[in-house]
Amino acid sequence: MDRRDTIKSLLLGSLAGGALLAGCRADEKPGETAGTQAPQTEGYGRTPEEMKRDAELHQETFFTEAEIAMLALLCDLILPADGQSGSATDAGVPEFIEFIAKDIPEHQVPLQGGMMWLNHRAKRAFGMTFAACAPEQQKQLLDEIAHPNEEAPELQPGVAFFTLLRSLTLTGYYTTRMGIESLGYQGNVTNIWDGVPEDVLAEHGLSYDEEWLAKCANPNREEVAEWDENGNLMG
Q1: What is the pLDDT of residues 109-126, one digit of tens each?
Q2: Other CB atoms closer than 10 Å to residue 163's CB: what's the count?
């Protein structure tokens, strides 16, 4: 099982409870990416005051271009594209994280400070920034902070940063259409019922009226069944 399949299984098993509570963001229309769209009035589900504030946040810029580029790199290392689905940046996750940083200011220092810490760690280990490191070097650096390690206290700032970033990345990705479709989640769909099996009906000496079947049990029916006040099929 690869990393992406592992994440899917964890999400489907727990509904990503912790990640989904990491922050609130503007609602999006189906098909939109995580953080790139300004709020819409129709069907938005927010009060006028909330919509005004969200619109103001969308007009602000918090991260520098270099920080956004580093966020994009990190998000795609957490959730890269595969043969079926796009990457975290394809879903607009870096923009979503910036929106969250503006919406929940207490995330600002951990995110910016965490990127500074990671760059400093990369320079000490390899003499260059994280983005300039080779892929195997980036993996080595992230593997150090991907899981809590009480025996390495010097890594704890990095562990806290990566835990937050991973949570926001999963939240941003799996609340977009792309992310939901990658899970194979279909939502509420109409059940298809084609009646009691014929062998069961035959065992009891029963059968369906063909007109009733055509209207009530055929999933491709064009004529909708109508009932009278006594519950009898009409027409």
Answers
A1: 999 999 999 999 999 999
A2: 17
